């Protein structure tokens, strides 16, 4: 039975891109509910968290990845608290009714060595085993008619859903991270495809020649006029006061003060 559960293709996760080290642990799951949830959720959860924590930090801001990780931690805390409360309540009922022996499963426990790649995987591994603890306790309470079958099914479904929700949430968050990474790559590719500015426009050869010719045509009369003024000044070294130019602006005031 254990081999049939583990060999299902739908439960397999792709670990080809996982390059980190792992802590080796051995599972010990007895209830069929915990076995199936482990095979269905644990490997995919670890793969999703690896892609979020490792690949996400390569292309996204670390603050974004840290918020996602904190969301997963809070979900793990909530599910762990729910299962712990269920164990405490079941123990109290068993003790109150003087029940010391729990119901057991006749199938072989699922014992397989797995690699834990992160603290998230370790906490999820522990949560799986807590689920395996509470399941036979609930079965015992139902067999002893302390709870009815309807309550048994309700509680069992609730605890399984709490564990399954963590893996589903991690997978959805990873899909969101991958979408952001693809959007970033597309944005960078679009920016790289934009034409780059060529800088200042250079004048054409004919424009440069035209400007030079214009400056030459302006400069030549100026030089000629300056030459004519110099010749006139040299021919009349003592101009009369009436011919002198009037000083303008501050020069006029300076002249008045001197007078």
Automatic annotation (TrEMBL):
Lineage of the organism: Bacteria, Pseudomonadati, Pseudomonadota, Betaproteobacteria, Burkholderiales
Q: What is this protein called?
A: DUF1845 family protein
Write out the ranges of the annotated region (Disordered): 185-259
Q: Which domain of life is it from?
A: Bacteria
């Amino acid at each position: 039975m254990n081999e049939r559960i583990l060999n299902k293709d739908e439960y397999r996760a792709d670990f080809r891109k996982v390059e980190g080290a792992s802590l080796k642990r051995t599972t010990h799951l007895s209830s069929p509910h915990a076995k199936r949830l482990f095979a269905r959720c644990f490997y995919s959860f670890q793969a999703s968290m690896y892609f979020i924590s490792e690949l996400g930090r390569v292309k996204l801001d670390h603050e974004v990845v840290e918020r996602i990780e904190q969301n997963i931690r809070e979900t793990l805390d909530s599910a762990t608290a729910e299962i712990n409360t269920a164990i405490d309540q079941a123990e109290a009922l068993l003790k109150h009714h003087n029940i010391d022996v729990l119901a057991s499963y006749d199938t072989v426990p699922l014992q397989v060595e797995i690699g834990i790649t992160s603290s998230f995987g370790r906490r999820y591994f522990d949560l799986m085993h807590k689920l395996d603890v509470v399941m036979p306790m609930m079965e015992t309470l139902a067999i002893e008619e302390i709870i009815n079958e309807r309550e048994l099914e309700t509680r069992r479904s609730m605890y399984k859903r709490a564990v399954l929700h963590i893996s589903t949430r991690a997978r959805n968050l990873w899909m969101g991270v991958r979408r952001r990474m693809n959007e970033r790559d597309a944005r960078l590719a679009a920016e790289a495809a934009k034409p780059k500015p060529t800088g200042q426009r250079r004048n054409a050869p004919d424009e440069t020649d035209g400007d030079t010719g214009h400056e030459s045509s302006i400069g030549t009369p100026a030089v000629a006029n300056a030459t004519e003024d110099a010749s006139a000044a040299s021919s009349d070294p003592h101009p009369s006061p009436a011919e002198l130019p009037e000083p303008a602006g501050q020069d006029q005031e300076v002249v008045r003060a001197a007078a």
